[in-house]
Design goal:
Layout (H helix, E strand, L loop, with lengths): L23 H27 L5 E14 L4 E13 L6 E13 L2 E8 L2 E3 L4 E14 L2 H13 L1 E16 L2 E2 L3 E13 L11 E2 L1 E3 L1
């Protein structure tokens, strides 16, 4: 009996296993957790950035050189100040974009100076040593008479004002620029000695 020609058996292709889709409930839970963490971090950063602790300013030392008041009530002098700025924050850096320091007698400015921009890291103390030069500046009649009387007693009373544009930075977030103002008074300066020694430190009032 002749063998019959039979077609070869077909090879069956393995069927791919169906892919399991991500559980939508699990995806929602993960998304909500991540969103909650981001919102919490944003709230924390916003709080630290927008409501930082008040910066502490003090005048550590002060002296005057070449102090003179002319007969026409014009003042000339060199005022030397050491001002300390303290950043009490643990995680916030303060950037000073500009700073203006002036000295006055009874709110009449007699000398001023612009300080270069600088950065103050957390828990940092920055000492600003500066000289404000008053050259033939006109005084009011009252202030000229008052300063002459104080000079005759050996001590004059001055004021120091600081105005700065600052911003706060924590991690990658930075606040908008704000105006910082510090008023330091009274600054009692011995006119008989040009030394910074023996000065009583003055705490400034700051406003942001």
């Amino acid at each position: 009996m002749l063998p019959t020609n039979q077609p070869p058996p077909r090879r069956t292709q393995p069927q791919p296993l169906p892919r399991r889709g991500l559980n939508p409930v699990l995806c929602c839970i993960i998304a909500l957790v991540l969103l909650g963490l981001l919102v919490g971090l944003a709230v924390l950063i916003t709080y630290l950035t927008l409501r930082p602790k008040r910066l502490v300013y003090t005048v550590e030392a002060a002296s005057v050189q070449d102090f003179a008041i002319a007969n026409d009530d014009h003042i000339s002098a060199k005022f030397n100040y050491v001002i300390k700025s303290y950043n009490p924050e643990k995680h916030v850096t303060v950037r000073y974009h500009s700073m203006h320091i002036s000295t006055a007698h009874h709110n009449q400015s007699v000398a001023h100076k612009v300080i270069s921009p600088f950065k103050q890291r957390p828990k940092n103390e920055t000492r600003i040593q500066t000289q404000l030069v008053s050259h033939n500046v006109a005084l009011s009649k009252f202030n000229a008479k008052d300063l002459r009387g104080e000079k005759s007693k050996g001590t004059i009373e001055m004021e120091v004002f600081v105005t700065a544009r600052v911003s706060y930075k924590t991690w990658i977030f930075r606040s908008r620029r704000r105006t910082l103002k510090a008023a330091c008074r009274p600054i009692m300066i011995n006119v008989t000695s040009g030394s910074l020694d023996g000065f009583q430190r003055v705490l400034c009032r700051t406003r942001l």
